Amino acid sequence: MLIKRPSDIRPSEITDREIYRARRRFLQGAPAALAAAALPGLFSTPALAAQKLPGAGKSPYSTREPATPYKEVTTYNNFYEFGTDKADPARAARTLITRPWTVTIEGEVKKPGTHGIEELLRLAPLEERVYRLRCVEGWSMVIPWTGFSLSEVIRRAEPTGNARYVEFVSLHDPRQMPGQRSGVLDWPYVEGLRLDEAMHPLTLLAFGLYGEALPQQNGAPLRLVVPWKYGFKSAKSIVKIRLVEKPPVSAWMRAAPGEYGFFSNVNPAVDHPRWSQARERRIGEFLKRPTLPFNGYGDQVAQLYAGMDLKKYF
Amino acid sequence: MLFLACLIPLGRLMWLGFDGGLGANPIEFITRSSGTWTLTFLLITLGITPLRRLSGWQWPLRLRRMLGLYAFFYACLHFTTYLWLDQFFDFSSIYQDIFKRPFITIGFASFLLLIPLALTSTQAMMRRLGGRNWQRLHRLVYLIAAGGVVHYWWLVKKDVTQPAIYAAVLALLLGYRLWFRLTGGAKHHPKS
After folding, report:
1. pLDDT classification of A42: cutoffs 50, 70, 90
2. What ipTM, to 2 d.p.?
3. Do B159 and A184 touch (CB under 8 A)?
4. Whose CB among A140, B14, B50, B73 lies 3.0–4.6 Å from A134's, allowing a Cys bridge?
């Protein structure tokens, strides 16, 4: 008896896995997108949070230490715009709308301008940079970021001879950022770097982590990552980059000038006035480990501070 | 019943521990939780006298010793967590913490002061000390509770909402005592 074999499906007819996934994401995101369109300021599309970033090249600046798991990186966050508990941002940051998004570059530059996030993403090739992150509170993580050196952006804006510092301003919108309804910090969040620090190749403008677009609670859609400084120096959800002559006053300097200095380089020899900085707990580890000067990036950045008294300029 | 209810915070910590629910930094979680429960039990203990005076009930008084000992129990858990899980018996670092960091100094001092109160909580010790001396010694609890709240206040980075709540409740409880003393109390004796 002849059993008829069903005709094989030609490989070309099989839906590509990525297209299938993208379609799923689109369908899953569609109701939220509709809601977001109907009620701007209330919802963002969760689909965007899981958006994959195009293949990022490896970087010689990456550490080979094991990365902190995705779950910890995205549920243990200091992002006071969404509450002061470290579990708050993962719960509350869904209200942050990250598309459309623009960043204004202004001040002491020859080419000021406002750039859309998609335009910025295409400005330079994306790299994966696995960096240590040391929080001023005494814990640390290892995070695979995706982005490129901030210098790519600043260079193109052509700083004038007067530019000596760079100020970063984060989004200020209490409708999207419920934590801003409290006066815990003076909003918006402001941070600053010296121009040479900002131009240092290690200083990263990050758009993603673990190969995906940044989750909202990690500072979407773009943030700074300055791995040799305490975490709070790495401003999140940036809307303005301003080149200036005078050192900017950061939000934390304004809140507690005796506790948070302009430089805030990781330094085990200079304690926070209320706790020690000599050791840190790497998230996921039991025993504390010694904290390294400049968070272990001394070879690359120590010369930026040659001759400076780091106890005075903390 | 109440004895078991007071173990719920501990049970919750153990449950979360087995369940992986203590978050990214379990040691910090346990330290915070045992610390706030110590404060909570201290405040509940301090609430007994006002409750008795306002309601006229006598029965809460019988629970006071147990509640106070639970405050000491959670304080021990808090201190052990610090000593063992957080510092891992690194005594030079603990020594520095205690003498260089005011929030730890005051927390440690409050813990030390709790010890004699726990040791003299038995009937036999009460008799040996005599009611008056015993009461005098146990007034230390006002200082201890205030020290505990300051310990919490100085520890937070910026948002003092939580310690402020404990401070407000403590102020209310101590304020009531002051008011009771100043107004003579007698007029307000419960009808019982």
Report:
1. very low
2. 0.82
3. yes
4. A140
